[in-house]
Amino acid sequence: MEQYVQKLHTLTVKRGRILPNEMVNRYYQDLNIVNKPFHFKGTSDVCVVLVHGWTSTPYEMRVLGEQLNAEGLGVDAPLLSGHGLQPECLENVTWQQWKDDVQKAVGRVKKQYKKVYVGGMSIGGSLSLHVAVDNPEVDGLILMSTPYKMRHEKLGFVMAQVTRKFVNYKKKYYPRVLNAEPSITQLISYQRYPISSAFEAFDAIKKTHDKLHKITQPTFLIQPERDHLIAKSSIFEIYKRLPSEQKEMRLIKKASHNFMGNGRHKQVFDDVVAFVKQN
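Request: output the structure for the sequence above.
Response:
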């Protein structure tokens, strides 16, 4: 846990990227749980499995989870393999292991609830797609900042291939998105990562392309208009390829890639609740 405390000042002050006081205050209060999975028992027969993004932790999904639970829905947020400890723990972990983590969560809650939705942030959304194809018991999907293609994908892939010949790790970079607040994810994520793990995440994304036509569950897609990581066309490409009869999408303004962690977009949260309740 010490790693999270040490980087607080740097991430909240460097380059003027001041996080809102309430986010920082809550972060301090929650230090003992920022790298832990969580489960909120619901009062209805519906549960939502929330899947965090690559190098992050379930904590980035906690605010959304609390709102869903306030509406009577069960919420389960697993910790993906290799996450929540130190970057070295990601070495030799495959994306299939992350998929298995999500599948286990779905199987676990299916024993307690009649309906199960899966919502994923970024790579968590990619994993949600993989699981939905293999598990017809998944009743719906919430895809948040889910990539079909990364920004500058070809160049980034080549650069990563070259970089891995000289170093095994790379530092994370968070460019400032115009008019968007920094995300809580910047605070809780690994600040460096094994390049080999980045290729695992990339493979998880590319492998969804051949599975999209198999998704028949109701699907809600959400993406910031100015996402600094994924191609702007991602939401449209995924939406176009889904055969789901019930599908909808939202583009949101003034938001970073990991927008859900801040709890700043209440309308989006309300839309997620409405989507789950109406399907």
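The longest helix spans residues 95-110.
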